[in-house]
Amino acid sequence: MKGMRFAFLCREKPEPTGKKVAIIGAGPAGLSAAGYLVCHGHEVHIYDKLPEPGGLMLFGIPEFRIPIYRVRKGYEELENVFEVKFFPKTKVAFGNGEEEGDEFVENVVNFNELVEKYDAVLIATGTWESWMPNIEGVELEGVYPALDYLFKIKSAKLGHMSWDEVPPIEGKRVMVVGAGHTAVDAAMESLLLGAEKVYMSYRRTIREAPAGAYEINLLKQRGVKWLELTVPVRIVGEYGKVVAVELQKCKLGEPDESGRRRPIPIEGSNFQIDVDYVVFAVGQRPTPPFAEDVGIAVDKKGRIVVDSRHMTSREGVFAAGDVVIGPSKVGRAVLDGLLAAESMHMWLLGR
Amino acid sequence: MARRILHVDYSLCIGCETCQSVCDFLHHGKPNIRIYYTESGLPIPINCRHCEKAPCMNVCPSNAIYKDTDGAVIIDPKKCIGCLMCLAVCPFGAPSYDARLKVVTKCDMCADRRRVGLEPACSEMCPAEAVFFGRPEEVEDEIRRRTAEKIARERISSTVMESIGRIL
């Protein structure tokens, strides 16, 4: 049972350079960057709002995909062998509101003060805000953003949350909206927790499903009712709780800017399905550690803008991972973290 | 030295592409392990399997392919004539023509890293532990242990154990 070796470039700590780096976010990008930096002699401090490092690898992606020990032993090596200092339950912010995964925050550190304290800073805070559709009934009890749903389940499994705080899925009917990896994981976790019936609603067909047909077929084999070419238009509630979802059928029209055929709702095709929970997995938004102007540019999708050196528009502040590239895969975030760290190393040594 | 193997277990791969990323980083944009997505949407990592009876070694007309002490199948760039016969016979399509070096390159089981006591980077970093490295008996043992875990998980999924909570 070996852990991920984030510091895969070396076995032991080299001579210190005397430079101190802060990393905000202990997900795949942040931890890989930390691994590179400690192998090059820099002191690394990692700030994260969650109770333990790992980011979505621990708090989002189900255990049947990424074994928990793989991540835990991984960050423990960074801590024990490479003396990386972790600041868990610590949110770095500047004017930020609430977002998913904030339940555990005990300390808040001002982003600008952090930047002052270190020789360089890396922002690797990911995309922790779920898109929620603007339809009637999203405020009802029993409606969850997918990340929040998965986050609660994993937090309980990891021992950070009581199972009482997790939605009691056993024997209940769950509708997952979306067909990406997060949607698939939400559907699978629902099955594993004993949901009586799991539905998946997707506005395109299995051929366009971002998670791939294989994953969707696997769920269908396990009894998930796949409702392609449907879009939720209203969530029906009684006494403030979800009782049903109203779906509208769609057909595919001309390809949109993403190259996929655009779903067009069919007038008068609405129908209802009785459910207890609705989970929306229709995309994530970047969550940088600031909401007000700190001299760092973001694009119209909220992603931090970086140059070819992975540096933001503020000198000495770098960014990597999903907060720069948008929701991606663990591997993509790892590579981005490594490249950013390499560039930080060059910058720190004045090359 | 004892034979060591680099083994990818396709049933454990979650398609996160971390293997490809670290290999890409180490080889400056030219990874020797790559994820391919099948028509059915299944991610499959493709890399050199360092065959015991390597067809590439047999077919290479310039004897550029040899095995090192760990059993890694390695192409000597000084001897390679770039004829691509190795690619033609490889059951996995692993060898890759390097247009810059004008020779064929492929996974060398992280030869530089093994020399300094590190293991292949894909295996060290795979979050799903789907890439194994070690002596064959060690790797097999690990795979069987993982399989046992998987079987156990299927059997006890959604079982509520009193006083222990939910086991999954």
Please provide a brief summary of the model.
Chain B: This is Fe-S-cluster-containing hydrogenase components 1. The complex is a heterodimer of chains A (351) and B (168). Chain A is α/β, with parallel strands linked by helices and 351 residues long.
Q: Based on CA inertia axes, which overall geometry of chain B fits?
A: globular
- Unreliable parts of chain A: none
Structural class of chain A: alpha/beta
Physical arrangement of strands within the biggest beta sheet of chain B: 1-8
Descriptive terms for the model:
heterodimer; A: 351 residues; alpha/beta; FAD/NAD(P)-binding domain; 2 domains; 5-stranded parallel β-sheet; 9 helices; globular; B: 168 residues; alpha+beta; Alpha-Beta Plaits; two-stranded antiparallel sheet; 10 strands
In words, what does this structure look like?
Chain B: GO terms for molecular function: 4 iron, 4 sulfur cluster binding; metal ion binding; oxidoreductase activity. Chain B: Residues 4-23, 39-70, 71-100 form the 4Fe-4S ferredoxin-type domain. Chain B: Keywords: 4Fe-4S, Iron, Iron-sulfur, Metal-binding. Chain B: InterPro entries: 4Fe4S_Fe-S-bd, 4Fe4S_Fe_S_CS, ET_IronSulfur_Cluster-Binding. Chain B: This is Fe-S-cluster-containing hydrogenase components 1. The complex is a heterodimer of chains A (351) and B (168). Chain A is α/β, with parallel strands linked by helices. Chain A folds into two domains: 20-128 and 284-348, FAD/NAD(P)-binding domain (3-Layer(bba) Sandwich), CATH 3.50.50; 132-280, FAD/NAD(P)-binding domain (3-Layer(bba) Sandwich). Helix content of chain A is 26%, strand content 25%. Chain A has nine helices and 18 strands. Chain A has helices at 28-39, 56-59, 68-80, 111-117, 146-157, 181-192, 213-221, 322-325, 330-348; strands at 20-24, 43-47, 85-87, 90-93, 107-110, 120-123, 129-130, 143-145, 173-177, 197-202, 225-228, 230-238, 241-255, 261-265, 271-274, 277-280, 284-285, 317-319. In chain A, the strands form five sheets. Chain A has a five-stranded parallel β-sheet with strand order 3-2-1-6-18, covered by helices on one side. Chain A has a five-stranded parallel β-sheet with strand order 8-16-9-10-11. In chain A, β1, α1 (28-39) and β2 form a beta-alpha-beta unit. Chain A is globular. Chain A starts with 19 loop residues before the first strand and ends with a helix. Chain B is α+β, with helices and mostly antiparallel strands and 168 residues long. Chain B has a domain at 50-106: Alpha-Beta Plaits (2-Layer Sandwich). Chain B has helices spanning 18-26, 55-59, 85-89, 111-115, 121-125, 136-156; strands at residues 5-8, 34-37, 43-46, 65-67, 73-75, 96-98, 103-105, 131-134, 159-161, 165-167. In chain B, the strands form five sheets. In chain B, strands 1-8 form a two-stranded antiparallel sheet. In chain B, strands 2-3 form a two-stranded antiparallel ribbon. In chain B, strands 4-5 form a two-stranded antiparallel sheet. Chain B is globular, with a radius of gyration of 19 Å. The N and C termini of chain B lie far apart (41 Å). At the A-B interface, α7 and α9 of A face α1 and α5 of B.
